[in-house]
Amino acid sequence: MEVNVKVKSVFGAKMFALGVVVKIPVPKQTAKTNFQVTTGRAKYNPSIDCLVWKIRKFPGQTESTLSAEIELISTMGEKKSWTRPPIQMEFQVPMFTASGLRVRFLKVRFNFYAF
């Protein structure tokens, strides 16, 4: 089985995403994996049946790819087709809001009262 995933950031070039984690489901019969990534690190996690690709810092207006070859164990039992679950992704983009609202500064005033 071959897996190719491309992640592309479409936010501004001056911004960046932190803690990007992409989880790519694989069949339970996975025996061996071999990856190549252009950014970050990837590993196979058998406890959740996923390839886990982590990118610490991902700049805006860039793209990165993961290519994997997955070797499966052949089974003699009943053949059930694998229903591919969705890919999961998590990340944070500091100082970015979907609405475009920006806070340029915040003024906080403290009043102290003596009793």
TrEMBL record:
InterPro entries referenced in this protein's UniProt entry, alphabetically: Adaptor_comp_med_subunit, AP2_Mu_C_sf, MHD
Top-level division of the source organism's lineage: Eukaryota
Domain MHD per the UniProt entry, residue ranges: 1-115
Stated name of the protein: BnaA02g36830D protein
Lineage: Eukaryota, Viridiplantae, Streptophyta, Embryophyta, Tracheophyta
Pfam family name, one: Adap_comp_sub
PANTHER family (alphabetical): AP COMPLEX SUBUNIT MU
Signal sequence extent: none
Species of the source: Brassica napus (Rape)
Gene: BnaA02g36830D
